[in-house]
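Students often ask what a holo structure prediction actually looks like on paper. The answer is less mysterious than it sounds. You provide the chain, you provide the ligand, and the output is a string of discrete structure tokens encoding the 3D arrangement of the protein together with manganese (II) ion.
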Amino acid sequence: MTNNTKNINQIPIDLHCHSTYSDGSHSVQFVLDTALANGSKYLALTDHDTVDGILEAKHYAQQIGINLISGVEISVTWANNNLIHIVGLNINEEDQNLKDNLHALRMERYHRGEKISQKLARIGIPNAIEGAMQYCDNKLALSRTHFSRFLTDNGYAKEGKAFDKYLAPGKVAYVAQKWASLKDAVSWIINSGGIAVIAHPCRYKFTRTKLLNLISEFKEYGGRAIEVISSSHTLDDAFYIANLAKYTNLYGSVGSDFHRLNEGYRHIRVGINHPIPNNICEPIFPFLNIDKSLYNDK
Ligand code: AMP
Ligand code: MN
Ligand code: MN
Ligand code: MN
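The corresponding structure tokens follow.
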């Protein structure tokens, strides 16, 4: 370890973002251009339940001079219907097992969308699936995010409130879905050569005990890392998770979780992140061959 005393308060690394291949609003090229303009050097594209955008991203990244890390964010149902997300980094986007399993997960998305639409129709909001599809290029990518855009743009909810009003668990248009098991998601990632990361842990509102249970099971299956920095996290959350990562020997990751420009509640710009606070836990960066000069080393 070098004794590096540089005080870096932004690092040009982003290990979590979305494009129109899932529920992001912008094309792969636009996402990469924006990341580059923000100073990014390393970017992982992590669309929900798909690796279809990776090849395009890799080609374009090479043209503009960004290091593209192949990624994915897998929807998981864990322990009695808790929806959690597992990010895979450095996965092999050509791995047939990974691709087939992700495709099977995505097949359910449109079907679930029809059920969401029926629930909305019952409370007087007609044609929601057609409306949501206006924001979505591909039936298999259909997400609650697209319903949220339809609902806000048509005056059924205030900006940023469609989840709280209709789409979140327990709300009138929520449809519970069986996604991948934690064990399967982690093993698809690992078997394709990737590293599994627990995404935005504070979003789940788990007690410390429940989060420790998740971490313990995740590690049992071979999971190695957890997001410390995320747009879903406050600074206090980042300290809490960094300490938890240290305590449980997980590596820390950083991700903007970018979906679109000017989105109020996601505050980190695509392509760059805050470093892990006070280097409390080890970062995931060495596993991704990220240039050491770009982050604070202990
Ligand atoms: P889905 O995978 O279709 O169930 O949609 C989940 C996506 O909805 C997440 O990836 C987020 O992008 C978005 N999302 C979830 N909860 C919220 C929320 N409370 N506010 C805004 N977006 C949310
Ligand atoms: Mn999303
Ligand atoms: Mn997520
Ligand atoms: Mn995400």
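The beta strands are 13-14, 42-45, 67-78, 82-89, 195-198, 225-230, 251-255.
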